[in-house]
Amino acid sequence: MSDAIKINKGIEEAVQDLLKSLLEKDKIKGVFTLRKMDDLGAVAYSLFTNADELKNALPLYPFMPVNAGKVLSDFTLQGATQEPVAAVLRPCEIRAFIELVKRTQGDLENILLISSTCGGVYPLKILKGNDQKSRQAQYWESVKKEDIDPELRETCRMCEDFIPHNADMVIAAAGIEDMDTQCTIYLNTQKGKEFASDVPGSKTSEELEGGKIEELKTKRQEQKAKIFEQFEKEQMGLKSLVKMFAPCLGCHGCSHVCPICYCTLCEFDSKTCEYRPTSIESELKLKGGLKVPPGNIYFHLGRMSHMAVSCVSCGMCSDVCPVNIPVATVFSRVGAPLQEVFEYIPGRDLEEAVPSGTYKEQEFMESGK
Amino acid sequence: MDTEFKPNIVGFLCNWCSYAGADLAGSSKMEIEPSLSVIRVMCSSRINSNLVLSSLLWGADGVLVAGCHPGDCHYERGNYYARRRFALLKKILEVLDLEPDRLQLSWISASEGKRYSEVVNTFAEHISQAGPNSLAHNPKV
Ligand code: SF4
Ligand code: SF4
Ligand code: FES
Question: Residue A365: its pLDDT value, please?
């Protein structure tokens, strides 16, 4: 059982009310969430400091223009924000932020993390359509019924970690049939309880997990098994890898949007990896041919070896790839066994060290023989 | 015509243990497979995945990383980190079905000249059996 507040309003309005009340009562000085940019469905992450503006906030809109964990890291790179800010994030965005904080790229101190039992997001390409109203209706129907909308990001369709780790407040969304008339917000941490002490709504105590949430988890797990199985059939081995990355432009968009790829200068963007006439010559000598643009497989394998163990499967990389390479599926598929080896769930616990930054004396004893 | 495959193996040896072990093997006139090109590094933890991957993608049929035995690293903990990185990289190659056995990590101390020659010879034999690395000379990669 955990403390919760119940608001007798539809989910969108209830969350807007919560944010508004936090801001008006001066508990926070800003709200970081999605903002409506026009009437046709365009959204962008924004900071709100004016309570009246919050009517333009769309905290639960099912799109992720950037992984907000990356943005919070930008905000707090040099230390905690001076004033408390509430941030409404998807569970994988919070996990990304936690991974970044572990790498001393951010600070949790003055951020109130609000999240939801997440129904997933759509690929950004879908935002271009002008039918956002019916799309929204379709989305919320499927969230209520816990159906997995086939149009969601692939990583969302197979996400088992849709119950947020480390959120101070959790909005119940997945599987909530009566979300049009009422909304439950769980207070998961001391911080969450303190901030919620005098927000509107009645205090209760409820069980977040179990029941319907478990059903959804099972559904997502089944999807994951299916997607991975398909992947294994088609994408393993050198031939498949060559095929999959053949159209890769080498734009490195996938790494630039990845919240875990935080290096200011990525080795793969550096001079070290630039092709010069001399490197082209030696490559021709070695291989009798040159793939253009060169070095794609090196880039992907290298990036994988750096970060796949911390991949939060947010799907940003697939979403931005201009040639539709299923980057996130590959990284999730490769990340899963790496995370298993180290019993590591990226972003689960701030105290859990990043696997490549720590060690145990007695492990992998068979290697090194 | 001699068409026997002669492998090209890169060996990253830590200065304080394995490189000294290689020296000892040499000065003791032990037989060592000549297909190993040695690169001396200050510690096994100097080896990051990019060095190993670029070897495998640009010409190497096998990569050997060798350092001090656990507990004996000159910098105390370097080889523990190296071991983790190695495990990560090897797992990736395994998952993607990219011949993880072309990678080997070994602990060889400065006094283990004999062990050095055995490790190198066995690994070279293994790589010869495995044949040319399909990643290394592939114009599509
Ligand atoms: S975003 Fe797509 S095209 Fe660009 S580097 Fe990544 S995989 Fe290649
Ligand atoms: S690799 Fe892709 S799916 Fe994984 S964290 Fe980075 S952007 Fe998200
Ligand atoms: S100095 Fe030999 S492994 Fe670190």
Answer: 87
